[in-house]
Amino acid sequence: MTLGPLIVQSDHTVLLEVAHPDAEEARHALAVFAELERAPEHIHTYRVTRLGLWNARAAGHTADEIIGTLNEYAKFPVPTSVSSEIEETMRRYGKLTIERLEPAAGDDVEPAPLVLRSDEPMILQEVASAKKIAPLLGTRIDAHTYPVEAWARGQLKQELVGRGWPAEDLAGFTPGEPHEIRLEEDGWHLRDYQAKAVDAFERGGSGVVVLPCGAGKTIVGAASMAAVGAKTLILVTNAVSARQWRDELLRRTSLTEDEIGEYSGQVKEVKAVTIATYQILTSRRKGEYQHLSLLDAQDWGLIVYDEVHLLPAPVFKLTADLQARRRIGLTATLVREDGREGDVFSLIGPKRYDAAWRDIEAQGFIAPAECFEVRVELPESERMDYAVAEDHDRYRIASSASVKQPVARRIIEKHAGESVLVIGQYIEQLESMAEALRSPLITGQTPVDERERLFQAFREGAERILVVSKVANFSVDLPDASVAIQISGSFGSRQEEAQRLGRLLRPKANGASASFYTLVTRDTVDQDFAQNRQRFLAEQGYAYTLMNADGL
């Protein structure tokens, strides 16, 4: 009998033996409910969290199924305390429900008032007595029911998650003003996983769909809009993304240019389908959010949050006020570097559908990718600067090491004729790199029209190399990019690592694989941050091949 690849520990960590023949299967099964914490070469460490278990429960998985997974792949018996805790945690989901009180006959109250219900009065009493929850509730109706203040639906869900009692929101949604939107499946059709994602969203009415970059999240958004058939507000990361959404909707749906408006720093249009940037919603003058009227400008039937893992913290408050609207979040990763995954769960909704990156790759819908960590030595002259620098300057010095420039050149020469993105964090470093490579540079200061022109030149092959800042991390469609060289990043951001690899995952016309290089300065904080950045992709099954720069 072959022992499994997992060791389940009583502190809720799970160790995965990477070299085990069943490691890949176990990794996929774990990803449903556990989060990867550390991913060195031989043993990966996962943690079973409450939020992970609640997301799994909302997606239809049971405690028996999860405990069965651990037992199937465990090398040693699963500690009883862990099994019991999984059962108890998942049992808590849905013990409280938020519903609408059925109006009495002849009662024309619109909308019907909200109530918090539970079949277990002691649980209801426990949460209603909490200092932060009591003001959100009215006078108890009966042993199983409390009225909820009309404005408190979102805040109540946040507070209940914080206390370990996530409520299932069954209060329904305002239908919004109808607006016909049809998919125009001319020469294409929804892929199986896309149709399943839309179906899962329809059943739940709100929640998050997790798909890898390049797997067609925009199409899932368009199909969800068609399913709802109402006026829609789409929130995106930047103006370039807004225009790509517009182009995709025009190509894939019955919508016309007259029906789609852009609401950004450059344009202020409100139409039946309006695409707005997070930046415009969070912009303030004299301490006031100036553009919040957009949220009430139409009777929206659906709010689409693109790249929901990047939702700015101020928008969470706005989202709490939009709980009566259907909401769908689209993302490649639920990881948030600010730790507010619980707010996404509460206010956008739980994870409704999740497709593993490697599974989509195996079906041929995203390009296969190889990941390399190339380690360079910090030159002696820069080593002294690094040694005496303040902590907040050390990462900049290490990640901007001058030696990275010739190494990037060697990688580009190795991939002669391919389309290459050189991606970084620090503008001075990027300017120097662009000058050395004699290639265009795109940063946040590049005008939107110029960005679009350069991206289009890259798509058409007129430009083979682009040097880009983090503005290219999100929602930029560059299907022919086959090589990315990451020279610096936002410290240890796992979400950024996923987004940057995602620039390469669009399927290639010639079926070629992609190569993702990260240049890391050895024995510095650059190396420490790189290990954290790689955790999410390791969870998805992407192994990093370590090499020295002189081994290129």
UniProtKB/TrEMBL annotation:
Question: Is Nucleotide-binding among this UniProt entry's keywords?
Answer: yes
Listed under catalytic activity are: Couples ATP hydrolysis with the unwinding of duplex DNA by translocating in the 3'-5' direction; ATP + H2O = ADP + phosphate + H(+)
List its EC numbers. Answer: 5.6.2.4
Query: Matching InterPro entries, A to Z?
Result: ATP-dep_DNA_Helicase, ERCC3_RAD25_C, Helicase/UvrB_N, Helicase_ATP-bd, Helicase_C-like, P-loop_NTPase, XPB/Ssl2_N
Top class in the EC scheme = isomerase
Report whether Membrane shows up as a keyword of the record. no
Please report the stretch or stretches of sequence annotated as the Helicase C-terminal domain.
406-552
Molecular function per GO: 3'-5' DNA helicase activity; ATP binding; DNA binding; hydrolase activity
Which PROSITE patterns does this entry report, sorted A to Z?
HELICASE_ATP_BIND_1 (PS51192), HELICASE_CTER (PS51194)
User: Where does the Helicase ATP-binding domain start and stop, copy by copy?
Assistant: 198-352
What the record says about family reads: Belongs to the helicase family. RAD25/XPB subfamily.
Instruction: Return the NCBIfam families for the record.
Output: repair_heli_XPB
Quote the PANTHER family the UniProt record gives.
Answer: GENERAL TRANSCRIPTION AND DNA REPAIR FACTOR IIH HELICASE SUBUNIT XPB, RAD25/XP-B DNA REPAIR HELICASE
Q: What is this protein called?
A: DNA 3'-5' helicase
Q: Which organism is it from?
A: Leucobacter tardus
